[in-house]
Design a protein that fits this description.
This protein has about 270 residues and is α+β, with helices and mostly antiparallel strands. About 35% of the residues lie in helices and about 30% in strands. The protein has helices at about 5-30, 35-45, 90-105, 125-130, 165-170, 195-200, 245-255, 265-270, and strands at about 50, 55, 60-65, 75-80, 110-115, 120-125, 135-140, 145-155, 155-160, 175-180, 190-195, 215-220, 225-230, 235-240. A four-stranded antiparallel sheet has the order 1-2-3-4, with no helix packed on it. A three-stranded antiparallel sheet has the order 7-8-9. The chain has a three-stranded antiparallel sheet with strand order 12-13-14, with helices on one face. The longest helix is centred in the first third of the chain and has 23 residues, at about 5-30. It is extended and about 90 Å long.
C-alpha cells in the first residue's frame, strides 16, 4: 500500500487557506454607501478631522475597525460621547432639596464624590465644588482606605495628595486624624489636627488578642486585667471578674488621660452622660 505524500497534503491546506483569506478580504470591501462615505472622509485631511477620530463641538466619533460578534465583516461602528458641564450655581439649586433631606435625616448635609471601585467619599457641600473637580481614587487595603490623587510637580514628576490633608491644610509637624475612625468620611466634622502621638491614640484595636475590648487582657485564672498607656507609661487599672467591667474601667481612665482623642469601648455611654 502506497503511503500518502505529506508535501501534497500541506500544499492543499495552504491553498485552501489562501482562498479563504481572499474571500474574507473581498467581503470586507463590500461596504454600504454610508460606511464607504465615512471611510472616504477618513482618508482625507481637514483642520477638524483627525484620522479615525472626528472632533466637532466636543463630540468625539470614533470609527472602530473591528467587527464585534453578530456583525458582518467590514461593518464599522460610530460611537459618540457628549460631555455637558453644569454651572455650580445651577447644581446648588438642583441639590438644595437633597441637602435639606439629608440634614433632617442624618443631622447634617453632605455631598458624595465617586472614587472608583464602587466607593465614594463624603465631603461638606461647600468643599464639593472645590475638590469635586479632581479625579480621586481609593488607596489602601482592608479597612485602611484613603482618598488620594496625583498632582504634577514638575517635568515628569508627580506627588500624591491626600484629600483629608488638602482639606485641613495642616502645618508642618501635625497630622490629620479621622475623629470617628472612618477614613472615607472627609467631612470637616470628622477631621481634626493631631500630633503623631495623639493620632496613635485613635488607632483601631489590634486583632488576635485575648479580649474583644481595648485595654483588656484575659488571664489564665479566668479574670480580666485592665491597663492603659499614658505618655509612654503603662498604668495598671486592676483585675476584674467581668470583661465588661474591665472595659468600662479602661474607658474611665481613657477619658482622663487621652481626653478628646480617647477611643472608647462604649462610646454610646459617653454620649448619654
Amino acid at each position: 500500500m502506497a503511503r500518502p505524500i505529506r508535501g501534497r497534503s500541506e500544499q492543499v491546506k495552504r491553498r485552501a487557506g489562501e482562498r479563504r483569506r481572499t474571500r474574507d478580504e473581498t467581503t470586507k470591501q463590500k461596504l454600504d454607501p454610508r460606511l464607504r462615505f465615512l471611510k472616504e472622509l477618513e482618508s482625507r485631511t481637514y483642520p477638524l478631522l483627525i484620522r479615525n477620530r472626528i472632533k466637532t463641538l466636543g463630540v468625539f466619533a470614533s470609527l472602530r475597525r473591528y467587527a464585534p460578534k453578530g456583525l458582518r465583516y467590514g461593518e464599522e461602528i460610530m460611537s459618540a460621547k457628549i460631555t455637558i458641564t453644569i454651572p455650580d450655581w445651577l447644581d446648588k439649586i438642583c441639590a438644595w432639596p437633597l441637602m435639606i433631606y439629608r440634614k433632617r435625616k442624618y443631622g447634617g448635609a453632605f455631598r458624595r464624590i465617586d472614587i472608583g471601585e464602587g466607593k465614594y467619599t463624603l465631603v461638606e457641600p461647600e468643599d464639593y465644588y472645590t475638590y469635586g473637580k479632581y479625579k480621586w481614587v481609593v488607596y489602601g487595603t482592608g479597612s485602611n482606605l484613603y482618598v488620594i490623587r496625583h498632582r504634577m510637580t514638575g517635568e515628569a514628576k508627580t506627588e500624591t495628595v491626600y484629600m483629608h490633608r488638602e482639606i485641613m491644610n495642616p502645618p508642618k509637624g501635625l497630622l490629620v486624624d479621622h475623629r470617628y475612625g472612618v477614613s472615607l468620611d472627609n467631612r470637616r466634622g470628622n477631621l481634626r489636627l493631631a500630633t503623631p502621638s495623639e493620632n496613635m491614640l485613635n488607632r483601631k484595636k489590634k486583632k488576635n488578642t485575648t479580649s474583644r475590648y481595648r485595654g483588656v487582657w484575659r488571664l489564665k485564672n479566668g479574670k480580666y486585667e485592665s491597663q492603659i498607656t499614658d505618655h509612654g507609661k503603662r498604668i495598671h487599672l486592676g483585675w476584674f471578674d467581668s470583661e465588661i467591667e474591665a472595659a468600662k474601667a479602661y474607658d474611665v481612665a481613657a477619658k482622663k488621660c487621652h481626653k478628646e482623642f480617647a477611643r472608647l469601648n462604649f462610646p454610646e455611654d459617653s454620649l448619654k452622660s
